[in-house]
Amino acid sequence: MGIRARRRVVSGSGRYVVHVAGLTDSTTTGFGVPSSGQLSKANKGGIDAFVTQIRWDESLSGLRTVQYFGYLGTTGDDEAYALATSEQPGPGNSIVYVGGISEGTAAFTPVGIGSGLPNFANDLLYPASGSTIPVSRGFLARISAVNEGGTNLPATLQNLVNVGGRTFATGAQPIQRVLSIASYLPVAGVLFFTGSTNANNVLPTTSDIPPAPYDVFQNTRANNTSDRKDAYLGSVRLTP
């Protein structure tokens, strides 16, 4: 449920490249992405998030080409709510960032992990040392740039992290989402992201090991005795 478009002039005519992300229960085979993996040609089960790139020429030929279509998901329901791009000029196109919600029994396996993540761990689920997998998690993904000619297909999953907390009020049904993404240093992969959660903790505190490298408005929900959700704001660097 996110869309980004850019236009540039090629040989006197306009050319659009459009990126779309959303959710689908289709089982039609995708293309232009790997045959297997978390981003692939196949629906993993139930509802999957999807991401696609479309080229649309304004010339008399009116060429419209879907350059890739891929499913991003687990065996449970996974939905994409947010999309941002690096908005690079020229024919090389843009890196694509996707965010949403995942409800698979198993969490996404993180991809492209490293010291760029703000908790210096393998994921963005807190506490970082916990083993609990909440039934609902947000996610953030970075997908490689595919040029206008499609000569560097397939599009590949460069980074993938789960987002949210591991602890909830007694009896609460975990509901955690990434709802919006804004690129700050997009080529470097520095993003702001926001959403909603009813987890007790969604960010590290200064007493965590490793400690939080930044200050936050509050590191716990305003009312941890209820099932009410709070909005959150986060920042991360996703770098292959």
Could you please describe the fold and organization of this structure?
This protein has 240 residues and is mainly beta. 0% of the residues lie in helices and 42% in strands. It has no helices and 13 strands. It has strands at 2-10, 13-24, 39-40, 48-57, 64-72, 78-85, 96-102, 124-126, 137-143, 157-165, 176-185, 190-197, 230-237. A 5-stranded antiparallel beta sheet has the order 1-2-4-5-3, with no helix packed on it. Strands 6-7-9-10-8 form a 5-stranded mixed beta sheet, with no helix packed on it. A hairpin with a 6-residue loop joins strand 4 and strand 5 (64-72). The two termini are 25 Å apart. Residues 116-121 and 209-215 have low confidence and may be disordered.
Question: Which helices and strands appear, and what pairs or packs with what?
Answer:
Elements: E1 2-10, E2 13-24, E3 39-40, E4 48-57, E5 64-72, E6 78-85, E7 96-102, E8 124-126, E9 137-143, E10 157-165, E11 176-185, E12 190-197, E13 230-237
Parallel strand pairs: 8-10
Antiparallel strand pairs: 1-2, 2-4, 3-5, 4-5, 6-7, 7-9, 9-10, 11-12, 12-13
Distance between the termini: 25 Å
Q: Indicate the percent of residues in helices.
A: under 10%
Uncertain regions spanning at least 5 consecutive residues: 116-121, 209-215
- Rounded to the nearest angstrom, the radius of gyration is 18 Å
Structural class designation = mainly beta
Strand order of the largest sheet: 1-2-4-5-3
Largest sheet properties: 5 strands, antiparallel
What is the N-to-C succession of helices and strands?
Answer: EEEEEEEEEEEEE
Give the helix tally. 0
Report strand %: 35-45%
**Anisotropy-based shape:** elongated
What integer is the average pLDDT? 83
Beta strands, count: 13
